[in-house]
Automatic annotation (TrEMBL):
It catalyses: alpha-L-fucose = beta-L-fucose; beta-D-ribopyranose = beta-D-ribofuranose. InterPro entries: RbsD-like_sf, RbsD/FucU_mutarotase, RbsD_FucU. Its EC number is 5.1.3.29. GO terms for molecular function: L-fucose mutarotase activity. It is an enzyme of class 5 (isomerase). The keyword Isomerase applies. Keywords: Isomerase. Pfam families: RbsD_FucU. PANTHER family: FUCOSE MUTAROTASE. It comes from the Bacteria. It comes from Labrys monachus. This is L-fucose mutarotase.
Amino acid sequence: MLIGLDPILSPDLLSHLRAMGHGDEIVIADGSFPAATVARRLVRVDGVGLRRVLRAVLALLPLDESEPDPVIGMQVIGDPGKWMPMHEEIAEGVARVAAGLKPLLIDRHDFYRRSTQAFAVVATGETGFYGNVILRKGTIENPPVAD
């Protein structure tokens, strides 16, 4: 255990978050997502829902707000303009770290294709429909330096 870190942030997940560079993307996926099929690097967080994983990751990962759409969710099949409860969860989680930033929702197949290019996929135990999000890593202007 470490002070101030959610214990669901495993050494594997922390390593991937640290290794990501500016512009790299990470997918946080629900339990129905084909994570093992699309992932270059797969991290499993079974039994934990989207809200907690998103909160833990966003406590460490700066979002890339230098370009549009650093947060991407999946559209509802057959009703692309509809927002599901999981879309609201994503929006609320993101708003905690980036006020006014809303996720862009894209077609399911486009989401899957984009996920194959992601740095890593985090497979959660989320059971809610459309509990999938892609986050693009940004930079930190003046990172803290230990004396």
